[in-house]
Amino acid sequence: MQAAPATAPPALQMTGMTKVFPGVRALSNVDLTCHAGEVHVLAGENGAGKSTLIKILSGVYRPDAGKIVVNGQEAVFRHPLEALRAGISVIYQEFSLLPDRTVAQNIFLGREIHRRGRLDHAAMNASARQTLETLGVHGQIAPEALVSDLDVASQQMVEIAKALSLDPQVLVMDEPTAALNPTECAVLFEAVDRLRARGCAIIYITHRMHEVQRLADRVSVLKDGELSAHFDSLPEPSAIVRAMVGRDIDTFFAPRATSDQIGDVLLEVRDGGNARLDAINFTLRRGEVLGFAGIQGAGRAALGMALFGDTPLERGQVILRGQPVRITSTRDAIAAGIGLLPGDRKAEALALEQSVLDNGMLSARALARLLGSHRSNGFTNTGRMSGLLDKMEVRAPDYEVAIGSLSGGNQQKAIVARWLALAPEVLIFIEPTRGIDVNAKAGIYQLMRDLAIGGAGIILISSDLPEVLGCSDRIVVMRDGTVAGEFGPSPSETEVMELATSARHAAA
Amino acid sequence: MSIVIAPLKRMFESRRFERNAAFYLLLLAGLGYVLIAVATGQMQYLTLDNLVSILGRTVALGITAIGQTFAILIASIDLSVASLISAASVLASVVMNGDPGMIVPAILAVAVLGAVVGLINGVLIAYFDVNPLIATLAMSLIIQGILSAFVTNFAGDVPEGFQVFAYGTFAGVPYALILMLLLALGAWFVLRHTRFGANIYSVGGNPAAARSAGIRTSRVIISAHLICSLCAALAGIYLASRLRAGAPWIGADGVYDLESIAVVVIGGTVLSGGRGGIWGTMAGVMIFSLLDSIFNLTGVDAFVKQVLRGVIIVGAVALYSYRSGRIAA
Which 56-85 residues of chain A touch chain B by CB within 8 A? Predict the structure, then answer.
């Protein structure tokens, strides 16, 4: 883990990077230097500007100011192709694989090997096998296999193989372990070590402290689009966290419920199951924030959608306020007093072109008849909705502007207002702070707590583990579509991860 | 019952079935045809000659559908093919005007027409981000409008020397059928064995991934539309040769826009792009042709025929979509 000699120019030097989007300063005067044979960890909360920086580096965005120097030569990337040619390869968090093509075809996407105008499938398969060997996964992944037949971890390895087969000078990895279990993580870390030993400059994006400890030679932390800290050697985890959050973690999350704030059982699920879920058992009390943790694909979001009647439970019992209920549609759920804020706001919750007010009124208007006139009168009244939006402190020029023009945090508050109009008792939040800036996050956490104190039961489903740990009064850990166990108020990140992955761990 | 159902269920759920569904459907259609011919005692329809004639009727649709496959593979679509077919038939026939010396110039003129239409479609979609449905529908209206301003019925005259294209045979097989099969073979080669073909699948499967892999997605989109329009233009020339003159209603009459899309989809190419291929399309074309023949054998009413076709299209797509557990088309 030695830095390159000071005489050699760094593999990559970004200085003064600035990017402004309409209404948002996404990146402001950020410097980042990465040397050959080094892992430079880039840390930061969601919305801190990491993705923007990487998209500039890979030629997807053009910076408004700043300079990129690759191996001592200034570079301007107008197209992803130019960044690739300069030896910069990015593994994005969202998979960019083609599910209906083979592993080899994906690895050679856009630069297929051909001989006299004909694709050389044999050569591509052979070369792909070699790359997979470099990563140490050639036993599990065949070059001829269809990507859609692979599990998530193998798909991640294919992504890495794809980037690696370009023999890049600078390799950017954007939270590559998000979907992996500890065994798979170990394989990945070894692959990173091998790449570092081969002289690759690696920018590794993560917010998991044990990965920083395991891999980092240097660390830079972004916060609100600015470089908030830089370390030329491995710092204490607490120093990184402070730089990421900008304040101590204790004041970031809302205080937990006191024992007198927690009331009687509001919702209970007994042996619930459907195609994705099995043997689901848990209880939710009034005044409580119940967190659900687990790795990607463990069935957390599926459970949220099941409780909300979107893909209903087919087996078992749901007991609400002591009465068994059958929820087979979202209308049933809403009538029973269950609300859900989906993970993908733009795709699943908002009519982006419509006004803030119309978005707020969406459910109340649609359900006016279902809820009965005595309840709906007040709910379809725009004055009342404006009041709720005010109460949520939605910041907008006025409530007639298109909701798409608001920031993520304000959009989320508007969706909460939509639910408040219906006065639900169980509110399910899926990934409530994804794509929301840090200060707005604290606001959402406080909001969840206030709703709980008001007597609601809150279910928090998030893949941001620190968030689940920081907000929840109890934590249910899910694994392979079922409940793996439960923790009290503040278990350690390691304890939760072990439980979340141990079955797959044992099977591996 | 379960002795029959269990293996069928297993077959239905296997991956291989998903890949070859169109060919199983083709087999089913062929079987149905034979059974009905036997059952109704019309054995004269079971000869090789009759098979060739069934296939011969598919040429115009087949050539158009080969082009349409390229458009749909990149997650686009082309609604302008029917109008373009009409325009190409009229242009070819008018330029030839009975003069064998004008055959080559006529073909060149039609090729230019096809290229221009394809280019405009592609540029509108790739650079101006116009929805493909709208871009090609508008193009279709424009072509049809211009065409109707000049001609209302048969126009020009195709010299006898060029009628060979539609009516000539080699060892009993029509030239045009051979041409269609060669075209399909060429399309298969391009899709399977060239970089351009790989790019088509990439752009259709995940445009963002293709772009970040350095593929010039706009060019791929334009090229696919170029191929689609050139195929439609060729189909127009063929129809002019077959009818011995061009006509401004010929494309609309054959419903080549919607039928070419239908056979591509029945052939297993998904409308969301990135999956499918040319042999599926060819199977789809033959399924349609066999269905028509079955309807003829049984003397089904023309309106009922349309209804049954519709049912079969929806049935096939619903089957694929149910199988792959996502919306396929």
Answer: 58, 60, 79-81, 84-85
Please report, as a single letter, which amino acid is at residue A62: R
Task: Tell me the DSSP string of A91-132.
Answer: E-SS----TTSBHHHHHTTTS--EETTEE-HHHHHHHHHHHH
Query: Over chain B, what is the mean pLDDT?
Result: 89
User: Is residue A10 exposed (0-12), middle (13-18) or buried (19+ Cβ within 10 Å)?
Assistant: buried
**Residue range of the domain that includes A487:** 263-337+424-508
Question: Rounded to the nearest 10 degrees, what angle do helices B217-243 and B160-167 cross at?
Answer: 110
- In this prediction, residue B1 carries a pLDDT of 47
CATH of the domain at A38: 3.40.50.300
How many CB pairs below 8 A link A and B?
66
What is the distance between the alpha carbons of residues A308 and A304, in angstroms, rounded to a whole number?
6
What structural domains and CATH numbers belong to chain B?
A: 17-324 (1.10.3470)
Q: How far apart are CA B172 and CA B174, in angstroms?
A: 6
Q: What mean pLDDT do residues B212-224 have?
A: 90
Could you give the angle at which helices B81-96 and B217-243 cross, rounded to 10 degrees?
A: 50
Contact check, Cβ <8 Å, B212/A99: no
Chain B residues 134-193 with CB within 8 Å of chain A: 192-193
State the DSSP code for A346: I
What integer is the mean pLDDT of A53-71? 91
Cβ proximity of A63 and A53 under 8 Å: no
In the prediction, which pLDDT does B11 show?
Answer: 62
**pLDDT tens for residues B21-63?**
888 889 988 998 899 888 888 888 888 888 888 888 899 999 9
